[in-house]
Fold:
Amino acid sequence: MFTFVQLTHFVAVAEELHFGRAAERLRMTQPPLSRQIQLLEKEVGAELFDRSNRTVKLTRAGRAFLLDARRLLQQAERAALAVHRVSAGTGGVLRLGFTGASVHSGLPRVLAAARTALPDVDVELREMVTMDQVEALSEGALDLGMVRPPISRPDLTTRTFVREGLIAALPTDHPLAGAGPVPVTALHGVEMVMHAPVEARYFHDLITTVLHAAAVVPVITQYMTQIHSILALVNLGWGVALVPESAAGMRFDHVAYRPLEGVGAHVELDLVWRQGNENPAFARLMSTLAAANDQPARLPGRARGAAISS
Structure:
């Protein structure tokens, strides 16, 4: 079978139509170049050049073969470049998991870093609840996850990435939907759409602790899993809800967002990854996030000082 070296030599002669100029272009002498072309013709079973009258011309077979030779060389060059990019972390695939709520907080920052550091990397996004991300990371099906704490797995590393406060989401015609902050104590006896205790345990436990500390007992009208579903019910007048500040990016016609007064608790979003991840693209992304870690988050809270460290 012919080699890529022979293809390179053939293309050079075909483009120069002169063995001497082709040899000079290839930085070799003419005799070995002629031998390589003869071997190539033997392999393909056809004469590729007409060498009569001291001129060199492509035969009909040579013209047809030139198209394929160029295509094969281009494919080989692209394959080599792709391998180099994957090895350097500038190519390949990066698989990111995220919770639905992180679309308005951590995910935009991670994607911005990926666009900067990995413009030629294919980023695969997978919306998954926290526990599904944990399993996917352990199995090697994800490179990086964005989850709610705590995660206690010896094979996984976590770092706090986003820290933000809670706000009140209210129907626009609700008595508490004025321009000022909403005291948490004002929610006692108020109808509320609550996060589900199992599927949305992180938010359920956090908000329950906040209400209990203020001796507030609301009237729960519905338990929901996703924040956008909770806000959809608020929009329909089913009650108020406590949501992370980033949720204010979800616009509904009949939902007002107000600061929550008397609450010191914060919502946290963690980055999590499997120890020993050997994907070069993952390493480049983490380095980029680490370099930008001294920049304040777009939310009122800041990522902690040691938040991104591989």
Summary: Residues 294-310 have pLDDT under 50 and may be disordered. Residues 133 and 145 are 6 Å apart (CA to CA). The chain is about 40% helix and 20% strand. Residues 60-88 form the longest helix (29 residues).
